[in-house]
Amino acid sequence: xxxxTILDHELVPKHVLLTKEEKRELLERxxxxxxxxxxxxxxxxxxxxxxxxxxxxxxxxxxxxxxGESIAYRFVVP
Amino acid sequence: MPQVKGEVKVIFAPSKKIKGITFGLLSPDAIRKMSVGSxxxxxxxxxxxxxxxxxxxxxxLGTIDPTQKCKTCGNRVGQCxxxxxxxxxxxxVVHVGxxxxxxxxxxxxxxxxxxxxxxxxxIAKMRQMMKERPRLWSILKxxxxxxxxxxxxxxxxxxxxxxxxxxVKLERPTTFYEKTKTGERRITPDVIRARLEKIPxxxxxxxxxxxxxxxxxxxxxxxxxxxxxxxxxxITLETGLRSEDDLTHKVVDIIRINERLKExxxxxxxxxxxxxxxxxxxxxxxxxFDNEVSGxxxxxxxxxxxxxxxxxxxxxxxxxxxxxxxxKRVDFSARTVISPDPNLSxxxxxVPVDVAKTLTVPEKVTPWNIDELRELVIRGxxxxxxxxxxxxxDGRRIDLRYVKDRKVVADVLAPGYIVERHVRxxxxxxxxxQPSLHRMSIMAHKVRVLPYKTFRLNLCVCPPxxxxxxxxxxxxxVPQSEEARAEALTLMLVExxxxxxxxxxxxxxxxQDYILGAYLLSHKTTTLEREEVxxxxxxxxxxDIPRPVILKPKELWTGKQVISALLPQGLNYTLxxxxxxxxxxxxxxxxxxxxYVVVSNGELVAGLIDKKSxxxxxxxSLFHRIVKDFGIAAGSWFLDNALKLFLNYAFxxxxxxxxxxxxLPEEAIKEIEDALKKAEDKVSRLIEKYKRRxxxxxxxxxxxxxxxxxxxxxxxxxxxEVGKIAAKYLKPTSRALIMARSGSRGSILNLTQMAAxxxxxxxxxxxxxxxxxxxxxxxxxxxxxxxxxxxxxxxxFKKGLSPLEFFFHAMGGREGLVDTAVRTSQSxxxxxRLINALQDLHVEYDGTVRTADxxxxxxxxxxxxxxxxxxxxxxxxxxxxxxxxxxxVAALE
Lengths: 78, 893
Hints:
By secondary structure, chain A is α+β, with helices and mostly antiparallel strands. In chain A, 22% of the residues lie in helices and 32% in strands. In chain A, strand 3 (57-64) and strand 4 form a beta hairpin. In chain B, 38% of the residues lie in helices and 14% in strands. The chains are: A alpha+beta, B alpha+beta.
């Protein structure tokens, strides 16, 4: 039997870990420190599953009623 | 020109700086130290009216009498800050505000040695942390302390001296009992005080207190401060009688009992008498602090009025904090009832002369306005375009009310003076109606001084203020500086606010009679004679009359021609009117009901102008298009003139509604009765089926619920059907029908309820079943599921409701009222909290939404970056309308 992961659930948007390069590029583009982004706990169920560690940045791609698809970023904190 | 003398710059060197504020308890010593003397006489004044020196109104406590000097500081009323006195209490009493803390302290410490009932090592451990890691302690304190105290309260044997502990019980509000083996024993305040004294500072600190700021025994009062008289001024009535402040009354009570108690003790009276007086003293001190303590009857004035003592002065909406400290009040404002005036511009507000004579605008005297201002000064404060004050260049104010010869004052007027003249036509004022829920609740208007006593406003601005004229009052504020006026004029003027920032549509627009007038004027059958057309068009300053469509036998114009004259050149637009019948297939401009509005190059070609075209809050309306494509000025011109014309056409036409508007022919009534009968049969068949358990159950519903839904459906269909019949038979000339069609007032539903049947009444979305067991009223059988028994109203309002129907209708109506009352308060509170949470968010230049400390909330505002105030109802572009605009209407046809 296939094990269920919460990532398969429809209401869980797609979470992607950013690479170091992407991270640098993002912070440069927004001209911000990582802690100015909204936070996500490393203990968050999705963060745990994709292996996010404190200091990482997670990209969240979700459906949006206004824009079709929207992108948000979360800074992983302990 | 006068020379501007060199200004003297005053620089204040800070002598002392406030670093912080700490709160603590007043020790008896501190109270005595700050006191100017003991207050021992329970009377306020001598026979001759001089204050008694040892009484609560003593001159040593400061003065409130302008003729007297303070005995302590020698200052007079304004200067003397007031001074505290004190009362030495004959016996200690508990402070009500601290009973909870006292209870905890008594229960958590040893009765014999006063130590905290926690093992020595543990106390030492915590003291160590306090000393060595003070920052860590300050974090942990709120978590650790309650646990420690709780544990100590449970300990029944002292770990320090081995004494067995008894539970201390608090009998609210101020009595303490001790539970011993032999029974309950009362602990008097002096015993409490003695026990609290024994608690060592070290243990007290572990319980989270700071012994430097508060010792536990200070929570039991031995000395009571008497507040300065400036805190409790007495009022002299016109009759010459003096009326004392509530606090003074209370202080007098305390002194009187205290003196009695002192006497009794000195006389060596029996314990019972002393205790009785002691309790009385405790009562007076308690109510002196807080007169709303539960379990104590509130202290009353001789008249039976409840006294307003210390806690009451601070607490609540009318207390010192919310009312006096956070409360804001302003000058240069006015408030009265509002009333409508369609002849004002939307940018104007009618101000009563009396108000205009009180509100002033400071105007600097210059060589260009000096003659005019002189005239105003001469006219003075009591004649309308006049002036109330003059401010000389040295800052001295001259009140024109007390000037004997104003001509003399006017003559000395020179550039550099400031004249505070009455507000007059054209001045800017901010107009506001509470509740101020959105920014359009305060808008700038231009003043128009008018006779009578109400503020007047154009009806088109009612929707943003949510105002009507059933007694509403509004506020007016007059900006005093050039900057404020400029800002108000460019940002807040009504015409700047036509488009709502919420969705980009107009929130200002026609209502009621305006819509009706437009509908009647644009009606196909409307023809006007030359005189009428001239009268109407001249009203909006139009002097060129279009060519009449009919020349013989008489020159006749259509209403649409008149409307076309008001539309801007180059306007191309189509929309479905509110009178649209929603036919299955739309024939567009060939609409048989004339409900498809077509405007081609500023010419109204077809369609009825109604709510959808000029109504307030209607998105995509004709008016919206005018504002968006031709600018705010065109929009406000349209509101001022076109809408005035519509209204005046309504006057010309005349319009009244009567009961005949809802009269239906015999056959219609018959048809309605048949339809209702059919529905009733259907319902009884359903009930039969249900009773025979043959009803097919709907998913996720019980059998009962299934039946309810099905009956509900049948009955609501019946009402709809009946409504259609009524609409079919109602005369098209029925005024009520015209109002509903045009959207000016009422709906088709209202009409069918009046003409055909009122329909199902509901409470909480269900057919009515409350009041009696399994039935709504004793007139029905228990468990009757039929239509009538559960609140279906067969009658129409015109026919009249039967008593039972009337009762059901009242039940449904009451729920509606309660709902609105509850909803407004709840949504109001929710909105307050939302605004509080969101007020500092802003959109940065890079398009991100940030908080005040620059944290990112959204990468793009609303995730699509659309500014709703510039959008078409939330969408960035309306493609269909854009194509129509570019290609012109003709291309679409």
